[in-house]
Amino acid sequence: MRITTLGTAAGGGFPQWNCNCRNCAGVRAGVIKAKARTQSSIFVRPDSGADGILFNASPDILEQIRANPALQPMRGVRDTAIAAVVLIDGQVDHATGLLMLRERGQPLPLWCTDPVAEDLSTGLPLLRVLDHYCGVQRQRITLDGAAFQVPGVPGLTLRALPLTSKAAPYSPHRERPVPGDNIGMLIRDDARCSSVFYAPGLGAITPEVFDAMAGSDCVLVDGTFWSDHEMPRLGLSAKSARDIGHLPQAGPGGMTASSFEQPASATTSGATSAAESRRSRMEWLLSRSGGSAADVARRAGCCVHAAQAECSHRPGRRPRFQTGWLCDGCDGAWPACGAARGEWRCWPKAVCRRW
């Protein structure tokens, strides 16, 4: 897949329009090594396709489209490469860009959870406003772990993960969070068997989030605050980072303190590199968790075979883990494993599959 980072700044952008802190003032004056950034959003498309998925529609979407020609392929008098929009939450800086897409000639395919659809129909009624223009073809994102695909974007499979964070200030769930206010998204390239975890609004690293991060080839997560109390310390707010749903980078319990760094992957290219990377990840998870090889393989995106005296794929090879074999051939993909090759027997799909 191809991932275009359209924006990487927090709400308000960088520099923020009314802020003269050292960083914002410094980037305006050109005296610090930084560059202006728009509000967070990514565009993901398959390697061989022009159309893709816009994750979050920031208020800066028009500027982002102008800066990234891939989003405007100019195949007709009116055209766009945005096949659909997936909303991670209903925050202003992630949703108000929908209004900038109102000239679309047909209803805009929009994927979001039920709580986000509620917030954007009541507290901030963007969806009702869009009904007077192009309209919205809303698709429901479920929280049961089910994988789904977006029509018009073949080869990419998505799965939502509920996050601990905060709903928007205009949401009735602001102080009483419900599952679906914020989600992280696992995006899988089916052809390459690679994945990215995207979570721009992350309030805590739960075991499920940890597993998603450790099992992904690329991680794009919340970096809004360096420390929990930087806003009160600057005299800009009485609220900490965690108070408004953001996990700080440093400090006790912060992002860097969670120690989720993955082992180095193999340097060679192709299937061997991918397989070695997942083997390293599995060994690392096994050493940390103390769980069974089958359970850890499921978390790492690997495949483990039933224990036996020898590996039928590599005769003479002894088991690498306590309860099973790590599959060298299937590389974590289901069903392109032993059942297809006829050389070994895999565990049931619930264990063997990557998702």
Features:
11 helices; disordered C terminus; 355 residues; Metallo-beta-lactamase, Chain A; alpha/beta; 6-stranded mixed beta sheet; globular; 4-stranded mixed beta sheet
Topology, number of strands: 12
The class by helix and strand makeup works out as alpha/beta
CATH architecture of the largest domain: 4-Layer Sandwich
Helical coverage, percent range: 10-25%
Assigned CATH superfamily of the largest domain: Ribonuclease Z/Hydroxyacylglutathione hydrolase-like
Largest sheet report: 6 strands, mixed
In the residues, how many domains can be counted? 2
Could you give the distance between the termini? 18 Å
CATH topology assignment of the largest domain: Metallo-beta-lactamase, Chain A
Structure description:
With about 350 residues, this protein is α/β, with parallel strands linked by helices. Helix content is about 20%, strand content about 15%. The chain contains eleven helices and twelve strands. The chain has helices at about 20-30, 60-65, 90-95, 115-120, 125-130, 205-215, 230-235, 270-290, 295-300, 340, 350, and strands at about 1-5, 40-45, 50-55, 80-85, 110, 135-140, 155-160, 185-190, 195-200, 220, 305, 325. The strands form three sheets. The chain has a six-stranded mixed β-sheet with strand order 1-2-3-4-5-6. Strands 7-8-9-10 form a four-stranded mixed β-sheet, with helices on one face. A hairpin with a 6-residue loop joins strand 2 (about 40-45) and strand 3.
